[in-house]
TrEMBL record:
A GO BP annotation: DNA repair
Protein name: HAD family hydrolase
Organism: Paenibacillus oralis
PANTHER family: PHOSPHOGLYCOLATE PHOSPHATASE
Keyword Amino-acid biosynthesis found: no
Gene Ontology cellular component terms for the protein in this record: cytosol
InterPro entries attached to this UniProt entry: HAD-like_hydrolase_sf, HAD-like_sf, HAD_2, HAD_sf, PGP-like_dom2
């Protein structure tokens, strides 16, 4: 029987990419279409990174109706996809680290709390889809928390070992829910307090190469 290789499950925002600059601009443009609503601050927008799409828009438009939030979300999705294709948002060394991990024999995938248009735009615009097998996000699995994405990744064919790699508490919680180790990225949006459940902490992506040796 062929030996299954370990699975590395990557968060997206704050772990592999930093789209904060264009996200702030795009959120403000989407919310500004509703003149009676207050524009969120930079800090409020950044605080929504890692949240589900529904929770994100509840925070960004707390006085808005459900229809207004859905409208803001739809406009945001349309604009952010276009702008991602015009920007370079990969974190330093991300592509090189992913390439090296693949060459060392690891399987890799994604688990992001975003919707499908955003995930697909990141993977395609930054040319990193080629590294991932069955990349998923909350929108694609119809879930409510990140653990729902891991449930899809880890069900069915046995995986001898899997690791969650991310920068937010939701990544640590998802790993804990499935009893797998988490690598906390202390260079993203969460900060050290959110990474307390991590098995390992890294401060730059190349440090992953010290944790995951060549499987050959």
């Amino acid at each position: 029987m062929a030996r299954e290789t370990p699975l590395l499950i990557f968060d997206i925002d704050g772990t592999l990419v930093d789209s904060s600059r264009i996200t702030i601009r795009t959120v403000r443009e989407a919310v500004s279409r509703f003149a009676h609503l207050r524009l969120p601050s930079d800090r409020e927008i950044l605080g929504t990174f890692g949240l589900s799409e529904a929770d994100m828009w509840r925070r960004l438009m707390p006085e808005g109706t459900l229809q207004e939030r859905l409208g803001g979300s739809a406009l945001y999705d349309e604009l952010i996809v276009q702008r991602l294709h015009e920007a370079k948002v990969l974190l330093p060394h991300a592509a090189e680290v992913l390439e090296e991990l693949r060459s060392r024999g690891y399987r890799m995938t994604t688990a992001s709390n975003c919707d499908a248009p955003y995930l697909n735009a990141v993977l395609d615009s930054q040319d990193i889809r080629r590294f991932f097998h069955n990349p998923l996000c909350l929108g694609l699995v119809g879930g409510t928390v990140k653990a729902d994405i891991l449930q899809v990744h880890l069900s069915g064919k046995p995986v001898p070992q899997a690791y969650m790699i991310g920068d937010r508490a939701s990544d640590m919680e998802a790993a804990a829910a499935h009893g797998i180790p988490a690598v906390g990225c202390d260079f993203g949006f969460g900060g050290a307090e959110e990474l307390r459940g991590a098995s390992r902490i890294i401060y730059a992506l190349p440090e992953l190469l010290e944790i995951f040796p060549d499987l050959g």
